[in-house]
Automatic annotation (TrEMBL):
Gene that this sequence comes from: rlpA
PROSITE patterns per the UniProt record, alphabetical: PROKAR_LIPOPROTEIN
Gene3D superfamilies linked to this entry: RlpA-like domain (2.40.40.10)
Protein known as: Probable endolytic peptidoglycan transglycosylase RlpA
UniProt keyword Membrane, yes or no: yes
Database matches in CDD domains: DPBB_RlpA-like
Amino acid sequence: MRRYIILLFIITLTALTGCSSSKGAFTSYDKKAKASYYADKFNGKKTASGERFSNSKMTAAHRKLPFGTKVKVTNVDNGKWVIVVVNDRGPFSGGFDIDLSKKAYNKIAGKTRKGHMYVSIEVAK
């Protein structure tokens, strides 16, 4: 009997978790990714989504994630993170996984002077 009660509890908990609102919840996408930032020459140019790019907004480019996806990007070296919205495709060179706007990049870069950093990427559910 005790076994059935425990099983019922687990099933109920699983069902409630699946039905609850996941607003603000994130799920892991990449364990470790390489991030870079857009060059200033792209300011004002159209992105793949049709929006105009601005290095002063909190946006990103990713090869596969749908446009409008909210992504939490965390610098694995210092733990700083930002939430950006995917509005472009890329990056397509250098082994990079995500391109951040300069504003987003600078918020999490810390003291690094490199043009890239290792990050974890989490996608909003």
